[in-house]
User: Fold these one by one.
Assistant:
Number 1:
Amino acid sequence: MRSFTCPACGNLLFFENSSCLACGTAVGYSRPDRALVALDGRRRCANAAIAGCNWIAGDAGPLCDCCALTRTRPADGDAEEAFARAEAAKRRLVHQLDDLGLPTDGVVFDLLSSEAEHVVTGHASGVITIDLAEGVDSHREAVRARLAEPYRTLLGHFRHEVGHWYWEVLVERAGRHDGFRAVFGDERADYQEALREHYAGDPDPDWNRSYVSTYAAAHPWEDWAETFAHLLHVRDTVQTAGAYGVLVAGRAIAPHPDAPVDAEPAEDGAGFDELVDTWVPLSRAVNQLNRSMGKDDLYPFVLAPDVLAKLRFVDSLVAGAGRAEPGTVR
Ligand SMILES: [Zn+2]
Ligand SMILES: [Zn+2]
Ligand SMILES: [Zn+2]
């Protein structure tokens, strides 16, 4: 995440701010500018109260461009806190997709609560379903423990599920099956059977030589989605470190020359080695900082050489899409 600046007084602002705590100026997030701008008569998103949305309303209606991507949501009065948490995670997601140059055309979200009906978090042809109960700490932590996962967050779900959509865009529609299969294996393997086997048995003890998570080992589609999510984890966290001047014995994080705001990492292929050289010492240091506070590791994962090769492949496709004309994906 970038750092932001008050347009009136220059004070440091954060992505979630709706006013400057130093000078009181009302601000909102402008998607076209990817910046916090003075409200100055602009309309706030109609979800400002219910979802804590600090984005400026779009041209077309009462909602901002990000909230407008939500196709289904609970009725007013149902699961409001969880809905607000999900929308907050989604704003971070959409901001990062914009930063990476990945178009969001074709993606919609169904935000539903499994407390009211049967809901399975997942993706189908651009429709992303998120179980809002994942925003309830007691529920999410219970599921995490039952599945023996080292990490489970709402933002992680959004990044994983949207990864399935970008597989369709960057691999399927772009005809890059051969390149994909060389790195991830053959996705024509029976998906339902693969998931059944995954949930029925114990993971291969050597899974972390080839996969970033045990779930990634279930099927090449899940491996891609997990790897895509990790690319977003790493890019966001390295960008945040750059924005706040945090460097841990890694190489300098060079701002992208075309970046409209500071701290966007380079996104060409050459940037990948630099990204990893920055990320590995940074993640180790931040893990230790977390342990100092009695928290679990921030990044409880190992990036083995095979996993890095997968990340490099996904990064190259994302970077290619980001360099294409706005609105197109090569
Ligand atoms: Zn200010
Ligand atoms: Zn909004
Ligand atoms: Zn998945």
Note: The longest strand covers residues 108-112.
Number 2:
Amino acid sequence: MAQPLDPVALLAHQLKTPLSTISALAQGLIRRAERLSAKEVRDRAERIWRASLRLNELIEMVLSYTRSSAGGILLNPTEFNPEALIRRVCREQTSHEPSRPVTVDIQTLPRTVVGDPILLEQALVIVLSNAMKYSSAERPITVEARSAPEGISIQVKDEGIGISARDLPFLMQPFFRGHNTKNYPGTGLGLSLAWHILRLHGGGIEIDSREGHGTTVTLMIPEKNITGAVDVL
Ligand SMILES: Nc1ncnc2c1ncn2[C@@H]1O[C@H](COP(=O)(O)OP(=O)(O)OP(=O)(O)O)[C@@H](O)[C@H]1O
Ligand SMILES: [Mg+2]
């Protein structure tokens, strides 16, 4: 029987992919810079820059996860406006995909809630960037937020590759990646980090998906929960 893939080897591979791109493009520039037009040089520099952003993203994800599982995440609750946070995250994350139809539908949210806005923003970025990564840039994404009896729910819906029923139970495990993600970069740490963050707030994450059709991820944040000054995971 085939050996299961070592997650650290997979992660190293993911980190090496953008690094190889950077290395190959930079070597090409060094060897051929005099023969390339200004536009060709700019194109290559831009591809190097994009690969370095991707590398940075991967490293940030690993660092955040390592912090959360080693020393614990510190929760710093303050009052914040949930609508402003959701709108800002959606605007910032989707700005580089101008052809993507994005609907932000916000209903009856309280003006302020108590929670850690930096961590909750990180959780929403993780879920929204998954929706963008696993669906093509022309497919719509809908972000819906509302007050429910259990608290605030933020739902991110995409029409992307979806998740197979056999992968669904494992998504919150660190390093786990769906069988249909081979052509997409990633560490498999994002959702486990988001799950830690929501659990710290007394909430949770629900995922509903059909392979080949799309995915809906719901972040649940109870409204009454957080009163302490600092909590440690
Ligand atoms: N919107 C989505 N559509 C399809 N699959 C998804 C979606 N969100 C999560 N998944 C599945 O859940 C897995 C775990 O997601 P997670 O965000 O933890 O890791 P990742 O996206 O693979 O990598 P990274 O840690 O870099 O974000 C993914 O590999 C993918 O199989
Ligand atoms: Mg991800």
Note: Helices lie at 7-32, 38-70, 82-94, 117-133, 190-200.
Number 3:
Amino acid sequence: MRWSWQIGEIAGIRVQVHATFAILLGWLAIRAWRDEPTLLSVLDGVAFVLAIFACIVLHELGHALTARRFGIRTRDITLLPIGGVARLERMPDDPTQELLVSMAGPAVNAAIAALLWFGLTSLGTPPSLSPETLENLPFLDRLLWVNVVLLVFNLVPAFPMDGGRALRAMLAMRLSFVRATRIAAALGQTLAFAFGAIGLFSNPFLVLIALFVWIGAAAEVSAVETRSALAGLQASDAMLTDFEVLAPSDPLSRAVELTLAGSQKDFPVLEGDVLRGVLTQDALVRGLSARGAGAPVETVMLEAPQPLAARVPAEEALASLNAPARLLPVIDRGQLVGILTADNVLELLRFRAAVEEPPGRGRSRAR
Ligand SMILES: [Zn+2]
């Protein structure tokens, strides 16, 4: 995540804080000073927030280390003012594993609260049961209650928060992955709307969390839908097989003619059987204004992109299309058999979506 600083590494996972976190610390220090203008009160306020965030790091490590048991790595853990985010490479496909990964975080908070409870009780100072006087409680008592709050809050079934992920996993045990995600996301967005409305009148953090949930839920649904729609397809299913090619020595006017005559926007440039480069519409327009219509294609074409094998999964092909060349050559046994553009893949997605839910319900979810 941009604007983040690394503060350490635990179990091989980078832990970083986002710049906005410093603003939160500053704001809390000022508040502590206003309540009680002594250095001790400020230090206590800051130390308490740091202790909370240490618990949040442990919570995220709970997710990350459980995911690792299922062979999924975690890129990093980032602390934001609204909490922590562990960037897992992916979520497990198996609903049981997703349930375990999503519950591991809250379980850590439950364990911390239980440890503090037993520790304080065995020291002869049992924690107070009245959380309404939180501000006046001793440090460790407050920390115990914060962990209870973190536990309860994360269990709210607002997908993509932990409780929502657990709900999606449980739904996915009976329904298709796409349907389970849609239901969980709809509930998540309904709850986000409620959080936002309540937050407007009480706590601005709630509004932030509502936004986070709302955007997160929408993004997850579209990612899951794309993945599911492309499941089982290969690059060769989405590629264009009827296409025009240019020779390196062709003038740019030839590319203009072909563009106007058909619907193709980008062209592979072949010399005999060998792919020499790609002429995208952007490159063509730039070339026309800089060199004129008589300039040979080879002077303005882009370098030939790495070709795709015809059998590459369509999902992977779509990811490769994020390169500067908007066209990828597809080869089979050394021969150019088609070209793939983002437009092709999006068309395919649209058609598949129109044919309603793809096959693969219940446990045999496609991926
Ligand atoms: Zn969590």
Note: Residues 1-155 form one domain.
Number 4:
Amino acid sequence: MKKVLIFVVAVIIGLFISLIIVSETKHSRQIEPIEKVVIPDILSGFEDRLSAAVQIRTISYEDVQLNDTVAFIAFHQFLHNHFPLVHERMHLIKINRFGLLYVLEGSNPDLRPAMFLAHQDVVPIPDSSVWKHPPFSGHNDGAFIWGRGTIDDKGSLLSILEAAELFLQNNGQPQRSLILAFGFDEEINGEFGAKAISGYLEEEGIRPEFILDEGLVLTHGVVPMIEKQVGLIGIAEKGYLTLRLVTEMDGGHSSMPDEENSLSVLAAAITKLNENSFDAHWCEPVMLFMDYLGPEMDFFPRLAFNNRWFFSPIIKQVYLSFAEGRASLRTTTAPTIFRSGVKDNVIPQTSEALVNFRILPGETIENVVVQVKKIINDDRVAIFIYGQPFAPPAPSPISGIGFETIMQSITAQYENAIAVPYLTLGGSDAKHYYNICDNIYRFAPYEMTGEDMSMIHGANEKISIANYRRMIEFYYRMIYMVCN
Ligand SMILES: [Zn+2]
């Protein structure tokens, strides 16, 4: 008995030691900046320009008839007036009137262009009374600029232009071409902006080396089990699918009802979908995220992340305990619309619901439909694809000048930060560019805590002037490193 006990203890100690050895031999995957970029003084009045840009109400409404075209024209005029070198030296092509495509020709035609995206439009304000400062005031309180778009996404549009203006002022003609593309309908899916711009570039035979769009940010206290700031670089995004579920059954008077009707059958189907979530597993971008994160963590989380073959179930439980974690581990199911019935004493003949799915990389639209049919398992529920689905694209590589320069720029700009690949859970204009580029990354250097995340599309959106200044420096550094 004693021998068995000694044997078990020895095995446990042996296992523990080998876990430690594996963990401690995994090295950091951070890339040090190759060159030290000297950043010139950024142009004075940068915060006033962001504040003024926020005051122009470039809102995208679901009902496009409501869109104020005058605001977009005013916004273009504003950019023209405030970024003189960009407008003098870069070629500006307007796509579908409001899409802005700026091209700075490089001297070396063998180098493919570097491309930066942002969008001009912002989401509407459902209730401005909950804002501390009016949403289109661009109020500057000395520390923050307030208003709709400061984070999504005029902050990055303006900081890219500030960086480009500064670059043109301090450098001659670059070797690599620089392309800036600013859509105007990202918040309503980018069909006329980004999609048309990418179509134009495809026709022109222009294939960028890499594309950098918004999508993920520099987080603080958001990624579990790590203290450092983590720059999340989106190397992939989830797919998008909405299914329309329809039941048609006999109606009639509600005084003598059958046991089931179209509404109750559909409700049962939705309940089944809610109760049977998709399988949770690590997709490629999330596995890479853990490979990069592991070596940067403190001893115990490092031990776990660097030995996932052993600790995976525990890490999974941690990630399944919060919404973002769950969304990175599985294809998500969200019923969003339910329509049925016209009168309280009439049994509805038809009921319909829309259910939105965000598909994990590696899975397909067909997969999801088959799975949904299997879960519902009721022929009375007809299932149709609604709108335009988007299959999850293959992840972009974690090598090459695009990814590497983004990483280097993050670690060079933010002292206590690391940069890791990740999966973008929402969508952005980037998804429209796969026809011309495989190296698409999503990162804008907004420094955000978990609490700050609620400002995106929410009330009291604001950015600190210090953060905004660092964003300009970040884009300057990137443009300098990739174009020169
Ligand atoms: Zn956005």
Note: The pocket of zinc ion is lined by residues 119, 152-153, 186, 214, 428 (CB under 6 Å).
